[in-house]
Amino acid sequence: MWFDESIIYQIYPLGAFGAPFENDGKLQHRILKMEEWISPLKKLGVNAVLFNPLLESSTHGYTTRDMRKVDVRLGDNDDLKKISKELHDNQIRLIFDAVFNHVGREFAPFMDVLENRENSRYKDWFHVDFGGNNSYNDGLWYEGWEGHEELVKLNLDNPEVVQYLLDTVDFWIDEFQVDGLRLDVAYSLNRNFLRALRNHVKARDPEFLLIGEMIHGDCKTIVNPEMLDSATNYECYKGIYSSLNSKNFYEILYSFNRQFGKDPWCLYTGMNLMNFVDNHDVTRIASILEKPQLLKPAYTLLMTMPGVPCIYYGSEWGIQGRKEQGDNALRPALEKLEENELTDFLAKLIEIRKEHPALQKGDYTQIAINNEYCIYQRAWQNERIWTCINISDQPGTLYVNEAGKGKDLLSHKEVVFDHQFVIPPQTCMVLEME
C-alpha cells in the first residue's frame, strides 16, 4: 500500500494560514497559500499531506456546520480542488481529517431538531432527550462528545446517518480526489460504522487509506482487516521525548519491542502505525525536549522505527509551542516554510528511508542498549539497517554479537567493529550493514 512508503506532513490549515478562530463569514482564499508550500515540501521529501479540518465550522474546525463545503475562512471548493490537483501533480497524496463522531450546533440537521423538536425528521440523527435541558437552555438534552455540548454526538447506529457520511466520503473523493482519511477520535467511533466505512471505500479503491486517532488502548481493536489500516502511535510518541529527556533508552526500546518485536506477545508486528513526535494537540517537540541537541536523535528515531512517520508543520525546523499556552501556540500562522540545519538533517533521513526498504517494511530487532546509547536493526530480505544513537557527551561502548562493518548513510563513513561497537558522543548513525 502507498501508505507504507509515505512521509506524511500534517497541517492545521485554519491556524497555519492565519484564519480567525471564530467564523466571521468572510470569504478569504487563504488555502491558496498552500501553493507556496508545495515546493519546499517536495524538497523535504514529503509525499502525503494530512489536512486537519478544512470544512465549514463555527470555530476550530471540529464544530462542523457543513461537511461538503470548504470553510469560508479558507476559501471555497474550487480553491481546494486547485490545491488538490497541484499536490497530485507533484506526486503528493491528500488525506482529510474526517470528523464523524460529532458535529457543531450549527450543523443544519441539528438546527432543525432545535427548531422542530419531536417533529424534526433528523431527531434520530442524534442522542436527544426532549424531556431534559442543557447549558444552552434549549429545552432538550443531547449527548455531546465527552461532555462538550458544542460537539453534538452523531447517532452512528442510524442507517440514515451512516449513509450520509458514506455519501460525504464519496463527495470528497469525487470533488477533491482525497486519497485517505484520518478519523478523529476513532477510539469513540461505532465499530459497525468503521466496518461499513471500510467496505465502502475499499470497494471504490483498495488503496484508499483509513487512519484512526487512537490515544490509548489496544490499536488492534480498530486496526484490523475489517476496519482501519493504521492508527496514531501515542505510546511511542511519549516514549521518544521521555527517553531522551531522562537519558533512558530502555523506555522507548521497550515500546519498540513490545509493539514490533518477534515474540508472539508483541502487539503490532507487521502493522504500520502512524508515528509522530508532535501534532496539533500536544506540545511541540522543540518545547518538550530539555535540550535542542536532542531534536536530531528524536527525528532519527521517528524515521527509522517501524511504522510511517508524520511531521507536524513547522516542527521540521524547530518552532516551539506549549499546550498550556493554548491552541494558538500549537497551531500558529506561518508566512512560509523555513529551512535550517535541522530541515537539512531531516531531509537526509527521509531520503535514506525512501531508498531502503528495510526502513519501510523491515522487521525489528534490538541489538544493544545502555541508558544513553543504543543500537537497533531493521531487516528486509538481504538488507540490514542499524540505527545507532548516543546522546551522551562521552563515547558509548556496546557489545554486539557479531564483527563486521557498515556504511553510515548520514556521514558516508565506513564503520568497522569487532564485537565491540563504539558510538561517538552526541551522534546519530544509520548504518547499511554488509
Summary, kept brief:
Helix content is 30%, strand content 25%. It is built from 13 helices and 21 strands.
Report on the structure:
The protein is built from 13 helices and 21 strands. The longest helix is centred in the middle third of the chain and has 18 residues, at 159-176. The protein is elongated. With 434 residues, it is an alpha/beta fold. The chain is 30% helix and 25% strand. The two termini are 28 Å apart. The strands form 5 sheets. It has an 8-stranded parallel sheet. The model has no long low-confidence stretch (mean pLDDT 97).
Poorly predicted regions: none
Strand content: 25-35%
Average predicted local confidence, pLDDT: 97
Global morphology: elongated
Quantity of strands, as a count: 21
